[in-house]
């Protein structure tokens, strides 16, 4: 599980929001939010960033996660492993 995803889940629950309720409030499907929280989807693109910022995460929290994602992609590209490269939001 990715660190920011886990933190998003914890913060969402701390604020008393259910998965479906929060997802609908930010305009995403519950499965999209679940994938972000579980690490099956990377924090990329405006919608995932909006979710993090809506829950009060700082620019530096989000920047660290995005840098980690970029480094994972870079390492995968160097190995020739295209399965790790996401190419943006789904």
Give a verbal description of the structure.
The protein has a single domain (3-83), classed as 434 Repressor (Amino-terminal Domain), CATH 1.10.260. The protein is elongated and about 40 Å long. It has 5 helices and no strands. The protein is an all-alpha fold and 90 residues long. Helix 2 (19-26) packs across helix 3 (30-38). The chain has helices spanning 3-14, 19-26, 30-38, 45-54, 59-79. The model has no long low-confidence stretch (mean pLDDT 84).
Set down the secondary structure blueprint:
Elements: H1 3-14, H2 19-26, H3 30-38, H4 45-54, H5 59-79
Based on the model shown, name its key terms.
434 Repressor (Amino-terminal Domain); 0% strand; 90 residues
Structural class: mainly alpha
- The CATH class assignment is Mainly Alpha
User: What's the helix count?
Assistant: 5
Give the number of domains.
1
- CATH third-tier fold name: 434 Repressor (Amino-terminal Domain)
CATH architectural designation:
Orthogonal Bundle
The end-to-end span amounts to 19 Å
- What radius of gyration results from the CA coordinates? 13 Å
The major beta sheet can be summarized as: none
Strand content: under 5%
Name the helix and strand elements from N-terminus to C-terminus, one letter apiece: HHHHH
Write down how many β-strands occur, each being a DSSP E stretch of 2 or more residues.
Answer: 0
Name the CATH superfamily assignment: lambda repressor-like DNA-binding domains
Q: Which geometry do the CA atoms define?
A: elongated
